[in-house]
């Protein structure tokens, strides 16, 4: 198994080090894994003058899977937009065709008190957010800034989805729902936006192939509210790129912290990029404070989805569970009575639990 390792920026290298240590336990036991490191984002710009350098592109194209930390940082925010770290992330998603972003919001029972919501609201939470990742207003053309006919400056983006794009993500979402509670909620803004009215129409059509799945529809503003009011009404949610970005950050707080939310981004051949849903956290970077669990859990998703190694995935997830049950907490999930640990100490504990 050839794995491209892209630590990225900010806390990226810190959390990646811990995820690799956890994978190294499996490697030491004989699992055949080769890690090849490459820069992405600001690190790519610093090394090669581009956020997705050709060097990195080649390594990622040849790899079976990609493991990513996070990209971005204030020092890059004034670069020309095509050179910014975030563009590197969008470029790799597009380059590898990673259209299906799975973000599981699962509450470890040990963290019921870490959520800002009441424990009884989040206890037992297990939602899978399926976010379309290579379309929508993120990629639509035209885009940019210009002076309009009245001489005013304006910014503009284009929200667009093709039928094929909606069909393939809908199939992924229905497929996942079939293996879970068979409930799928499609999130749109069909009351205002034609693109998402079209989305809804296509999802309804695809549903005919999955008669066992109970399909519902919700406007995105209501969905944002329902996630806080009664999140356990959801099993699988499917939505476009921008709504999925926002709703998944919101859902992360149901699990205690954004530092717990793993993700997998898959293409047609299940080649995957695995990364935590959070960013490079410049406010805590370099301080050994970050929670590495979302990255470690992303490595577990890599075992499950790209390498079909369910046993290895469960092994990593159970190690995380054990560490939480033993009371170890990074700052973002800390509560009185627990043992506060650093990023690397959290890694030590997961490795020991493995
Ligand atoms: P962020 O997710 O980096 O941080 C938001 C807040 O959550 C911060 O207070 C941060 O300290 C905290 N946080 C995030 N991850 C944590 C972890 N593992 N452990 C403990 N606390 C954690 O979002 P932001 O501040 O909006 O963005 C910072 C930079 O990251 C920007 O440049 C942005 O573009 C980039 N970004 C990258 C990705 C990615 O690489 N996938 C995702 C989101 C944002
Ligand atoms: C994420 C991030 C990215 C996104 C940014 C950094 C391009 O917020 O992975 O959720 O919006 O997709
Ligand atoms: Mn995001």
Instruction: For the record, give the distance between the C-alpha atoms at the N and C termini, rounded to a whole number.
Output: 20 Å
DSSP helix fraction: 40-55%
- Helical stretch tally: 12
Average pLDDT over all residues: 97
Number of domains: 2
Main CATH class of the largest domain: Alpha Beta
The shape, in one word, is globular
Radius of gyration: 20 Å
Q: Total strand count, please?
A: 14
Ligand inventory reads: nicotinamide-adenine-dinucleotide, 3-isopropylmalic acid, manganese (II) ion
Structural class of the helices, strands and pairings? alpha/beta
Could you give the order of the helices and strands? Answer: EHEHHEHEHEEEHEHEHEHEEHHEEH
Largest sheet: 10 strands, mixed
Q: Which runs of at least 5 residues are low in confidence (pLDDT < 50)? A: none
Strand content: 15-25%
**CATH architectural grouping of the largest domain:** 3-Layer(aba) Sandwich
CATH topology of the largest domain: Isopropylmalate Dehydrogenase
CATH homologous superfamily of the largest domain, by name? Answer: Isopropylmalate Dehydrogenase
Strand order of the largest sheet: 2-1-3-12-11-4-5-10-8-9
Structure in words:
- It is an enzyme of class 1 (oxidoreductase).
- It is globular, with a radius of gyration of 20 Å.
- Helix content is 40%, strand content 18%.
- It is an alpha/beta fold and 354 residues long.
- The chain has 2 domains: 1-105 and 259-354, Isopropylmalate Dehydrogenase (3-Layer(aba) Sandwich); 116-255, Isopropylmalate Dehydrogenase (3-Layer(aba) Sandwich), CATH 3.40.718.10.
- The two termini are 20 Å apart.
- It contains 12 helices and 14 strands.
- Helix 1 packs across helix 10 (293-305) and helix 11 (310-325) packs across helix 12.
- Nicotinamide-adenine-dinucleotide is lined by residues 11, 70-73, 86, 89, 258-259, 275, 278-284, 290-291, 294, 332.
